Amino acid sequence: MASMCLLLLFLTSCSAKGQWDYSKGPGGPAHWVGVAAACGGDHQSPIDITGAKVATHAPLQLEHYSTAPTQAHLENNGHTAKLTLLPSSPATTPTLLGGGLPARYSFAQVHFHWGAEDGRGSEHLVAGQAAPLEMHLVHFKSALGNLTGALEEGAPDSLAVLGILFQVGSANPGLEQLLPRLPEMRNNSKITDAPLVSLTSLLDTADLTSFYRYSGSLTTPTCNEIVQWTVVESPISVSREQLAALRSLQDAHGQPLVDNYRPVQSVGARRVTHVTTRPLLRTAGFLGSGGAPGPVVCPLLLTLLLVCSPALY
């Protein structure tokens, strides 16, 4: 029962201490610490990404991101538009790994943050600049089984969120499939037969070879500091019509659901890295089971082995 309560707490983003919203009133971000004490921590998200240190990692790997689910739920929960995908089997659950992440992570849900105007809306800023829309793909550490396990573990790497920034341009193909159903969930409601979009269609042309990484938190109460953030450097496109459709949603009070972003938090002593990726070296005999990459082999070591060990020819 305790585990179920934790899961409901995460999915509905509510607290026994009170309700929260994005206003400047008593429920707004300035007062979230009264809703959840963790919101006053020193590893909070989002942040303004500046002064990042350069790092190099192996590429991010996305498994089953292009696999269409068997069912999809699309919800306006009064705070955001959230999409939950149900895979055909656990084996086809979209999974995120590599890129310097400490574990393998399974996809849980994707949601969005947007502004009333194009000059604001994203939660993360880059050198002080906001984007009109930000997408968060939330993953839990696969070994923990589900979101409840991640919340119970409470480690700095229990969750991994892939953040994608948008710029105004052409239509996003994944959103294009979802937006015709938005009028059905305009007033804080949910549909359980949403279009069966793949995550690849939402990512569209995202360039995952360069991104920012830091340790942070959920950006809504309860603000748990359990997230490894990966914010992709280059934005992808969203059309003005798609932004208008998102802005047509209403919150739990019947007001326009816009500006649903938390102000940036202090970076403090945290390390923020600007990651570029290098190709994995793959040679015969150095692939893991099922085609997964095995150990990365130092090219110099491999050359020495070939020269010094005739049996390898």
Q: Going by CATH, what is the homologous superfamily of the largest domain?
A: Alpha carbonic anhydrase
- In DSSP terms (H or I, runs of 4 or more residues), the helix count works out at 6
Average pLDDT figure: 87
What fraction of the residues are assigned to beta strands by DSSP? 25-35%
Largest sheet: 13 strands, mixed
CATH class of the largest domain equals: Alpha Beta
**Number of strand segments:** 15
Look up the CATH topology of the largest domain.
Carbonic Anhydrase II
Structural class by helix and strand composition:
alpha+beta
State the CATH architecture of the largest domain.
Answer: Roll
Q: Rg from C-alpha positions?
A: 20 Å
User: SSE order in H/E notation?
Assistant: HEEEEEEEEEHEHEHEEEHEH
Shape annotation: globular
Q: Regions with pLDDT < 50 over 5+ consecutive residues?
A: 1-17, 282-313
In the residues, how many domains can be counted?
2
The termini sit apart by 61 Å
State the helical fraction: 10-25%
Could you list some keywords that capture this structure?
313 residues, alpha+beta, Carbonic Anhydrase II, 2 domains, 13-stranded mixed beta sheet, two-stranded parallel ribbon, 15 strands, 15% helix, globular, disordered N terminus
What would your notes on this structure say?
With 313 residues, the protein is α+β, with helices and mostly antiparallel strands. It has 2 domains: 38-279, Roll (Carbonic Anhydrase II); 281-313, no CATH class. It is 15% helix and 26% strand. It has 6 helices and 15 strands. The strands form 2 sheets. Strands 2, 3, 4, 5, 6, 7, 9, 10, 11, 12, 13, 14 and 15 form a 13-stranded mixed sheet that branches. Strands 1-8 form a two-stranded parallel ribbon. A hairpin with a 4-residue loop joins strand 4 and strand 5 (81-86). Helix 1 crosses helix 2. 38% of the residues are buried. The model is unreliable at 1-17 and 282-313 (pLDDT under 50).
